[in-house]
Amino acid sequence: MSKNKNNNADKKMNIAMLGHKVVPSRSGGVELVLTTMAPLMVEKGHSVTCYNRTGEKFGEEFIKDVKGNRYKGVRLKRILSIPVKGISAMTSSFFSALNVSFGKYDIIHFHAEGPGATLWIPKLFGKRCIATVHGLDWQRAKWKNGFGSKYIKFGEKIIAKHADEIIVLSKNVQQYFVDTYGRKTTFIPNGVNKPIVKQANMIKKKYGLEGNDYFCSISRLTEEKGIHYLIEAYKKIETDKKLVIAGGTSDTDDYVVRLKEMAKGNQNIIFTGFVEGELLDELYSNAYVYILPSDLEGMPLSLLEAMSYGNAVIGSSIPEITEVVEDKAVIFEKGNVDDLAQKMEQLSDNPAEVESYCRMSSDFICGKYNWNDVVDRTLSLYQKK
Fold first, then answer.
1. Are strands 289-292 and 312-316 parallel, antiparallel or unpaired?
2. Secondary structure (3-state) at 43
3. Alpha-carbon gap, residue 151 to 154, rounded angstroms
4. Per-residue pLDDT, 7
5. 76: which strand partners?
6. Those residues with Cβ within 8 angstroms of residue 136's Cβ, 6 or more apart along the chain or in another chain
7. Pairing mode, if any, of strands 70-71 and 74-79?
8. Where residue 271 falls among pLDDT bands split at 50, 70, 90?
């Protein structure tokens, strides 16, 4: 009897993942999620194929594990995309959706709202389609005007109407789908692994950082991440701490130019560009305080990572941050530069308070958000009837 009862849970599935740029990589949150989750699914006996865009490069820290068209057992399939801003994602999603429709997949898993605009294609062929809404992307600054926002909102509507199951990463977005579409969703947040804390070696040579001597923010440099608030706030305070801003552009070159103009003349504001591997580990490991000043988030992986390294955190008051940190971080009013400056100065002047947050952050976040649990819950949802 027990054997029959477990048949459904033990079923090995053939799974397709699409909507990302390239796996393995940490070029964005979706990419890092799949780089982590897909191999875990393979370890549990399932077959996983990730549909990568042409023209995108694997993350350097992962290249050693890419063998032919495989990454830790995950099949990597290149799909045609036109390398034009705003068009690349649309074309790769369309051709991926066509391809999976004729493949022998049990599950087609779409990631993000824009790619979800093509979810109806495999549904025509009777495929079981799951969608993860990593955030309300049509609200992002780079899409808020014109066709991009409309297309992403269209994708959201297609997901709400046609997806067999929808995964959301925050309770705020879960309520949004109920209010807007009357659609129930499943809340499965991202996870994090407990890392090894590294000494300040590379960052000392490259940026002159000793460790525990800088505020740090790591994100894509897009307007909704609020880095302009952070620079303004930093310029208002008196501190011996530097400010390290790590991350690259995401079709937002004008915004990056604006940030660097704001920081002009201040030698204590350091832009690292995109970082990964050992350098990223060291930046997380040796920060005095990690700051996430976002106006908009889905489920901020950088926040989970920062706390997993045992960092004290200052975050904005959006639900996607406050739900994660509970009472284990300092919160400032979203978009309020003066409030952010006050919180930065408060922690700059009180290392004992910083240390108290550091002591509890890693065990708290690693206990609350676990990748194995995330994968198990996702696999159970795949098989839900």
1. parallel
2. helix
3. 5
4. 43
5. 50
6. 113, 156, 173, 176, 296, 298
7. antiparallel
8. very high
pLDDT of residue 384: 87
**Tens digits of residue pLDDT in 120-150:** 999 999 999 999 999 876 566 555 666 778 8
Residue 207, beta-bridge partner list = none
In what side-by-side order are the strands of the sheet with 128-133? 66-67, 70-71, 74-79, 47-53, 14-18, 107-111, 128-133, 165-168, 186-187
Q: Which residues pair with 316 in a beta bridge?
A: 332
d(CA 354, CA 291): 13
The tokens for 207 are: 């940026």
Q: Which residue has the tokens 């060291």?
A: 282
Residue type, 249: T
Distance of alpha carbon 343 from alpha carbon 269, whole angstroms = 18
The reported pTM is 0.87
Q: Give the gyration radius of the chain's Cα atoms.
A: 21
**Edge to edge, what strands does the sheet with 242-246 contain?**
269-273, 242-246, 214-218, 289-292, 312-316, 330-332
Distance CA 227, CA 94 (A): 33
- Which phi and psi (to 5°) does residue 20 adopt? -90, 175
Within 10 A of 183 (CB to CB), how many other CB atoms are there?
15
Give me the amino acid identity at 353. Answer: E
User: Residue for token digits 């049990």?
Assistant: 106
Tokens standing for residue 314: 């200052």
Q: Which pLDDT score is estimated for 5?
A: 40
